[in-house]
Amino acid sequence: MSDMKRRSFLTGLAGIGAAGAVSSCAGSGLLSQKKDEIPKRVLGRTGVEVPILAFGGACMGHAFIGKEKAVPLIHEAIDLGVTYIDTARIYDDSEIYLGEVLPSRRDEVFLIEKVWAKTYQEAEKSFETSLRNLKVDTVDLLHVHNYGAQDVETVMGPGGSLEFVMKMKEQGKTRFIGITGHTGVDKFPAALETGVFDVLMVNLNFVDRHTYNFQDKVLPIARKHNMGIVAMKVLGGRKQDNFQGWNNYKTPGPGNMPPDLTQDAIRYCLSLEGVATAVVGMYTPDDLRKNVAWAKAFQPLNDAEMKRMEILGKNMAQTWGPHLGAV
Amino acid sequence: MSKLKRRSFLAGVAGVSAAGALASCTGAQTVSVNQAGIPMRVLGRTGEKVPIAGFGAGLFGRIGLTKAEGAALVHTAIDSGITYLDAAPTYPNAHELIGEVMPQRRDEVFLISKVRVDNAKEAEELFTKALKDMKTDHVDLLYIHNVGLYDINKVMADDGVYPFVLKMKEKGLARFAGVTGHLNHANFKPVVEPGELDVMMVVLNFAHRYVYRFEDTVLPMAREHNMGIVAMKVLSGPTGYSKAEPPKMPAEYCQDAFRYVLEIDGVSTAVIGMYTKEDVFKTAQWAREYKPMTKEELAALEAPGKKLAAEWGESFGKV
Question: Which pLDDT score is estimated for A313?
Answer without folding.
Answer: 95
